[in-house]
User: Which sequence fits this backbone?
């Protein structure tokens, strides 16, 4: 398989293009994603290739078009919707949690809902409190929904492909601070297993760091800092929040005896608590210290650059959390 | 003060504006021919819906139906009339008060009862319940318990129909109260802008739960809301099953041939309370009485009898037979097994 | 102070009435809460006493009237809104998480948002998947919001009063299966400290059970079962999910060495994970076993009575979870 | 087919229906008298807004403004004209494109810049940013970044005004694109049903982000949406500051005296792209040119000069002085300290 260096943004576009070529029942809807290629250019060129019927600009009506996606999914299509900022998931929350996530179950498992919600979230770009959330936790408790997080171009590529092929609703969270990051992508790879769960990105013996989205590169940077000081951290990208599979994490902690989770959201209600609780449950006797969690402070993300930077977990802060466990 | 310079819109606008002017009173020019057979079928379907709901009520009192249930006695003409205008491969979304639509689309009555009773043989295996009867094989894409929730979903099915290009349409049934929620508005706008083959059938029964429409809405003729989307719209006597059928058939024809969506307001009334616990004391007895006198089953029966379509006495036989069919189906359903409490992974994810 | 036996429903009405008498800037809005007293009769008599301006029926428009509550709160009123079923919090989610919860912070702390959202949730009444959720977890991760859970008449009474007097947005979750339960309520008590956190309802030395809402009486019933077998469980009503204060729970676990959380929602994304993670962090060396969590299974709540009953944590299941730790 | 029997609504309905017929073209009968002083103030305010935005743009390029920012050059007449009709104790909600409203309500310019620069002296202490300028002391109850999000909030402020009974009103400013989202619809209905003193000022600048209105909406005259709520409505040239003022003043008078809400559509145009990263290539150059020729600052200046209200040459001095004031304010703001990174508990909870 050819490997190409792509940006995260290009990886998204490539995944969309290939899946839309592969399956004529796929289509994508969202605000200003047509001729303009999308506010974040994550649909660049799709309109030209697939036309307005399959690359569809919508009115500003998230409830309307996300609900419409459910109607499409129930009647033979495989819709993809783009939510421009993850923060706007709040506007169509009902359609997602009460409609999309529950429809199959309420039908007795007699309908399928092959539907992808791509949503672009995250802080660090000084967009203020209403345009910087990842939205990860809002739906963490919603059965019937799959939730995946793309931390790098190759993950964005395979996950999105797998999500589109999945017969269930999948929320794919992308991170706007990663859009221009580059990485090798194995173009044309079959996405089998891409939704299967956590992935070890760096092996280590002294501590396990689990991170999501933009915290993954920061966790890797923290591992570099730690390594310079003689501590070898294993870094895991959690990737799939729902259904959550912590077995690889538990296995890692049985080896390293220490766990630090890193997430770009407040501590209470975050996935780190679940990981910590499961690890404690499964690997209680292997832990040399209670799991630590590095999170956002418990207030909305501030606009001012100095404050936003201070709020976001830095590689130094992550490394410090690991050191504190040693 | 000069009018602001404006670019002229695309040519599609003209058609849209035309559509807006099509707001009319249903049944102006009966160009939809109904055979006597059709008429009998309409009457029989209304009787079936009525008898189904009455049986649900009895079963509820016997403890067989759980939680709550929202019945549609008095509104049978809307489901029966509208659904007769549909094809087998059309799509329908509806609400917690959707038993009528399910029956009018041919849902198996025993499976419906079994669902209401929470049994394994229920149309949703007992997982859905009274508010969530779904049968995708009949285009019954879903009953939505969140007010307005099903309207955008029907719009998506309409987009599906448009893309498939086989002349299907999608119909969304909802209540007067639902026209005050955002989902309705977003769905209407999208359907019109994309010229989707969607019929918005508003069952204006004058009440939300316990609030009369004038308490929550600036006027009673909800058809006026369609103008906000330049959508074709029609107001129809929702207790006149033929009028409903005709308005729906006309709108369906237009939608199938690319003419876009239509808003159909059906004036009707629910005979009972909002749900099982509601004695509906908040209604003016005179209002109730006036509407009971306009019971769609009584007026249609009288009309058919007068026209000689329904031999006098035959209606009683139809009612009797429907009643015993419903009773038998309910008995069968009540004898069915409870679902096994097992792993629901397969019901949750495909 | 006089103590009266009231139902949970009556306790809610009493709290509303007293606070509305006390402060003319309070008012309540919701669907069909006026002359009819509310679908669950939680506003019975208020319309007669305070009139249509302060006991206000709304159109079916949760986004509209919850957003309007923010406008009232910013301009001198203390609005209370009733959300008929907690499931409908999804419909106005954006107004709550992006508007109400963040408005003060985004203003630099220069505005106040004294606003109460009362929402009636929970399963057990065969209302099906869209009318049986508690909604606790959806907003667990939202800074700027206080979230409290009423498990009994006295809690409902004091918490609601405290929430109304609080100068911040408070989401009060009530449980429909508890509406007719009775309990002693100290009418007229000042609600000071009612939002302060967990409360010990039964003392015990062998295990700590922490529960919320309708799981509280079940946890107490479990404690009875356990006691009959010689195990003394300490039962704690968590009461306040946001801001979460686990100190009393940690203290209890240092005594009992065992923790079981009980919540009426799926495990992933629930508050039990946060409690477990904090307890592990604060009382790691005191734990004799990893914390256990009793939750709903990971699917929407089914309609059929046999299935719903099997899904909801029973006293027996809670007791079994405690025994498994011994 | 008989029309369905209907109970007559309460008498308030008549008034509502009357209101619906009041859809008019703004400025029909100028009964709002403006003094020359008012006119100069209007012009000066528009210049201030323009110069503020131009300075923001320069500061952005210097790296002083962070993230993104949404400017309103070309739309100054709406903010200036509407806000002149308001009282000090009225309430205003607006959007991420709300700098104009903030200035027109008297927000301290240096504090506004400092907020955009993320400084401690910012009007929100650096916590809000360009999209969230709020100053409750001036009735600036909030800038909303979620499209439509501020409209129900303004309705709440309108209810507050009605309950307080001191003749205050509430105004919500929002864009054409916002009329497609549910929050708009729910807010409009509630305001009308409760007859709240709320003005819905729609700045129809023909575009959402990159989509022209005809791509997302069935017509360009959004005033037609008000009929769905039987709401009084007026369409006005949003580049004519006096027309905007007059329409607002009339609607405000009506609202203050219990006449209920009004929808005011202001036809206008944004000169720049949607936000800082948008070169606005999606617009027809002829359209842009036509609108630039109708720049509200240029046309009003010409009118005032022709009427002798503004001595020739004076406008340049006003512009020059405004520009240096904005520059000085920006410099002051840029010299201000960064906020201290501390515990934000007090900013989060009162
Ligand atoms: C979003 C939402 N809010 C409130 C409710 C509670 N509720 C259920 S039915 C109903 C009244 C709906 O009235 P209408 O749309 O006229 O339909 P009808 O019941 O008359 O058929 C309400 C308020 C709900 N299900 N969903
Ligand atoms: C709910 C929601 N969806 C999408 C966006 C992204 N967005 C920001 S501004 C905008 C266009 C709004 O257009 P309009 O209402 O006409 O206001 P204008 O920007 O022209 O002033 C969009 C889509 C948003 N902020 N909120
Ligand atoms: Mg109704
Ligand atoms: Mg616009």
Assistant:
């Amino acid at each position: 398989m050819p490997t190409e260096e792509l940006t995260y943004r290009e990886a998204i576009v490539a995944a969309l293009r290939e899946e839309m070529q592969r399956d004529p029942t796929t289509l994508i809807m969202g605000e200003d994603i047509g001729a303009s290629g999308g506010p974040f250019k994550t649909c660049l060129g799709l309109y030209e290739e697939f036309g307005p019927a399959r690359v569809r600009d919508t009115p500003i009506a998230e409830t309307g078009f996300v609900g419409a996606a459910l109607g499409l999914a129930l009647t033979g299509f495989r819709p993809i919707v783009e939510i421009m900022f993850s923060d706007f998931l709040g506007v169509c929350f009902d359609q997602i949690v009460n409609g999309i996530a529950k429809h199959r179950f309420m039908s007795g498992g007699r309908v399928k809902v092959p539907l992808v919600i791509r949503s672009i979230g995250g802080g660090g770009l000084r967009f203020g409190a209403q345009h910087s959330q990842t939205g990860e936790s809002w739906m963490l408790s919603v059965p019937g929904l799959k939730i995946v997080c793309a931390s790098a171009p190759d993950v964005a590529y395979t996950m999105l492909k797998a999500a589109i092929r999945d017969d269930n609703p999948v929320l794919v969270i992308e991170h706007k601070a990663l859009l221009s990051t580059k990485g090798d992508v194995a173009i044309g790879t079959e996405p089998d297993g891409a939704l299967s769960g956590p992935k070890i990105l760096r092996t280590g013996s002294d501590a396990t760091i689990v991170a999501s989205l933009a915290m993954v590169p920061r966790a890797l940077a923290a591992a570099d800092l730690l390594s310079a000081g003689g501590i070898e951290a294993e870094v895991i990208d959690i990737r799939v929040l729902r259904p959550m599979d912590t077995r690889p994490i538990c296995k890692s902690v049985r080896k390293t005896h220490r766990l630090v989770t890193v997430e770009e959201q407040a501590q209470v209600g975050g996935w780190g608590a679940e990981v910590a609780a499961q690890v404690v449950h499964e690997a209680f006797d292997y832990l040399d210290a209670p799991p630590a969690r590095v999170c956002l402070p418990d207030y909305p993300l501030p606009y001012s650059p100095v404050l936003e930077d201070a709020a976001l977990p830095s590689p130094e802060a992550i490394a410090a959390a690991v050191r504190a466990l040693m | 003060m000069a009018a602001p310079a404006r670019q002229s819109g695309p040519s599609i606008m003209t058609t849209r504006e035309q559509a807006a002017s099509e707001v009319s009173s249903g049944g102006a020019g009966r160009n939809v021919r109904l055979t006597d057979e059709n008429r009998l079928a309409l009457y029989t379907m209304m009787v079936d819906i009525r008898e189904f709901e009455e049986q649900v009520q009895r079963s509820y009192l016997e403890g067989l139906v759980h939680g709550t249930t929202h019945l549609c006695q008095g509104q049978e003409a809307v489901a029966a009339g509208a659904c007769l205008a549909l094809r087998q491969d059309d799509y329908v979304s509806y609400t917690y008060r959707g038993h009528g639509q399910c029956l009018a689309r041919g849902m198996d009555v025993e499976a419906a009862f079994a669902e209401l009773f929470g049994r394994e043989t229920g149309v949703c295996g007992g997982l859905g319940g009274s508010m969530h009867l779904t049968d995708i094989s009949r285009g019954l894409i879903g009953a939505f318990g969140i007010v307005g929730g099903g309207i955008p979903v029907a719009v998506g099915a309409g987009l599906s129909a448009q893309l498939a290009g086989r002349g299907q349409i999608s119909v969304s049934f909802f209540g007067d109260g639902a026209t005050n929620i955002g989902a309705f508005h977003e769905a209407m706008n999208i359907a019109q802008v994309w010229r989707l083959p969607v019929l918005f059938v508003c069952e204006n029964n004058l009440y939300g739960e316990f609030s009369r429409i004038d308490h929550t809405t600036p006027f009673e003729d909800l058809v006026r809301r369609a103008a906000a989307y330049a959508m074709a719209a029609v107001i129809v006597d929702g207790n006149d099953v033929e009028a409903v059928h005709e308005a729906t058939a006309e709108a369906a024809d237009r939608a199938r041939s690319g003419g876009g969506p239509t808003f159909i307001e059906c004036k009707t009334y629910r005979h009972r309370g909002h749900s099982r616990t509601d004695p509906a004391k908040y209604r003016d007895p005179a209002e109730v009485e006036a509407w009971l006198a306009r019971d769609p089953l009584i007026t249609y029966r009288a009309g058919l009898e007068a026209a000689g379509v329904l031999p006098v006495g035959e209606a009683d036989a139809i009612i009797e037979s429907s009643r015993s069919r419903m009773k038998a189906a309910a008995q069968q359903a009540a004898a069915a097994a409870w679902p096994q409490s097992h792993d629901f992974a397969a019901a949750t994810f495909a």
